[in-house]
Amino acid sequence: MDIILCEHAGFCYGVRRAIDITLAALRSHGKVYTFGPLVHNPQAVKRLEESGVRVCESLEACVDGTLIIPSHGLPPLVIDAAKEKGLNVVDATCPHVGRAQQLARKAAREGYQVLIVGDRGHSEVEGLLGWAGPQAIVVQDVDDLYGAEISSKAAIVVQTTQSFDMLRDIAGAVLGRTRELVIYNTICGATEERQNAARDLTSRVDAMVIIGGRASANTRRLWEVCKASGRKAYWIEDAGELDAGWFREVKAVGVTAGASTPNWVIEEVIRKMRDLDQEKLDQEKSGEFEGDQLAAVNSEGGPGDMAAGEGASVAQAPAEGDKTSEGPNGEGQQFDVSSLGSAGDVIEKGQIIKGTVVRVEPDQVLIDFGQKSEGIIPISELSTRRINSPAEVVSVGDEIDVYVLQVEDEQGNTILSKRRADQEKAWERLTRALTTGETIEGTATAVVKGGVVVDVGTRGFVPASHVGLRPVADLSSIVGTHMRLKVLEADRSRNNVVLSQRLVLEQEQAEARERAFETLKEGDIKEGTVKRVVNFGAFVDIGDGVEGLLHVSDMSWGRVKDPKDVVSEGDHIKVMVLGVDKERRRISLGLKQTLPDPWLDIEKRYPVGSIVKGKVTKLMNFGAFVELEPGVEGLVHISQLADRHVAKPEEVVEPGQEVKVKVVSVKPQDHRIGLSIKEAEPPEERVEKSEKQESRNPRESYVAGDENEHGPTLGDVFGDLFEKEK
Questions:
Q1: Positive or negative CA dihedral for 349, 355, 359, 360?
Q2: Which residues are catalytic?
Q3: 577 DSSP assignment
Q4: Per-residue pLDDT tens for 683-701?
Q5: In order of start, what are the domains of the chain with their CATH numbers?
Q6: What is the pTM (predicted TM-score) of this model?
Q7: 198-256: per-residue pLDDT in tens?
Q8: Nearest in space to 553 (alpha carbons), one of 599, 584, 582, 591
């Protein structure tokens, strides 16, 4: 008996994501609950419980710890109540379910009555009711609309595991009963993909086995799809429910599985089917096999994945045109393509399939996708951006996804589109990213009014204010660059995608700052880039967008009037971490601390009594500062400027003047040197100046501070005042 596993079966993205989130929470927090089963599969839930994840049916049962929102979501009131109780709430809602919830809430806020197409009582539908407002109703089939009050403004939101046929039938029935109808097709792409793959496989086999939990809506849909074909369809939860009688005279059996069915459950089922087939063969050989001993056929069935082994022929259902496919253990297994029907029978308009580039021509690309002849991609369908040659996008041998535009044109060619396939995948990725907040990537292609156009598989727009952390003066410099983006808005009905690179950079900067404040310590030497120069210093990026302040006082051992004299924007410099203020989120840096201290060995270079030259840098009322070398300044006290009395230093020196000074004191620990100008003069010059002082009139001598032997009289000093009084 050939056992063929459906191409798409088992865990979907949303279920796998929910389990990964739950296990991560268990590792981080220890005490973890799920509100109801995390996924609709008893085996998966049991394994989680064995790992330590507890299932609670009410908030009262959750004493403390972390509460996981299951993949099918919860009403907002339950989530709010959990947070008020003090539980750490972690959201594992499937992104597709989350999108349906947000659309339901949006429609209700805009005044629409929300009609939820889905299974009444299903946990996902119950959750949607909580988001859809008090007027919302559940429509399970067309009959539910009889007698129901429908508002003049209605919006349809669909349970993610519903079939498109059901949506179409209900939407058609509502159209004639409302003035305005908005339809949100929130059916999960993975659900449609699994149903289509199951429908295709059912046409190739004698019977189908569907593996999955009884509470799983998407498993029920798979069973309904398989049963509708007229083939025998058996729905089971695990291998223990298999019955050997089901496979009497069955030459080929297909296996599929619901989106919440673990692979190991599917493998057990196929292993058991292999064993049953081997037992049948053994009985036939021994003559013990009797048809009337077989159990009655059970019409129920369930989803499943595949396991390989010896005995029965187990095969993965191939993509169209595949000659070989890998089994579960990675072994190549041969297929009889003729037994599966021609590839052309299963290719339909609107499908996304895989193909290999076999030829690149100036205006088109030829694709091998398992048909008798190659498919054609016109140059206009290769990319969302303008290109001059197909070679800019693909090369011979590339395996790519293509969208079927036409199964057969007038010349019998299959027309394909890489652009449409990329757009379909892009919209799925954008919708998921809008819900989860994940980062996507794109390339800036053009500058338009107010921002930049980016290629993210479809056309996206980044407002100028969201291009970078700070305004970008020339947006044309962004064109051609790779961008990492958050999705702000994704509305496919209006083909509107708004993105932000600033949010990514802010998030990374915040994370980097957190790491910096945890790891940086005083004394660390960092290489940085000067980002801004201000009048009190400069801001330096020391990595990952983490900036610290280099104050002007820490730029040089010498006196700095203007920070721009030391550093400029864009300079790469080494700085020392002087302080990390975690509370105020500030980092202070120093540049001079990375340079040799000029005050080391200062006593050897400027011993007391030595005569040296320097430049006057600053005048104060108590004296003048003289720079001996960069970073080394000494003070000439006002009393040491001249042999006479000096009222103001300007009487003797001026800034910028070169002077000769004598070192009178050195204090290295305080970075102080005492200097004297008057003692630096030779004795004969001092005598000459003294004699000149004596030749002055008495009043001048007094004012100048001369200490003549006779000195001035009071009349000399105050005579003019007496005259004025008279």
A1: positive
A2: 124
A3: E
A4: 666 555 555 555 554 444 4
A5: 1-94+190-318 (3.40.1010.20), 96-187 (3.40.1010.20), 348-422 (2.40.50.140), 437-506 (2.40.50.140), 520-594 (2.40.50.140), 602-681 (2.40.50.140), 685-720 (no CATH)
A6: 0.41
A7: 999 999 999 999 999 888 888 888 999 999 888 899 999 988 999 988 988 889 999 99
A8: 591
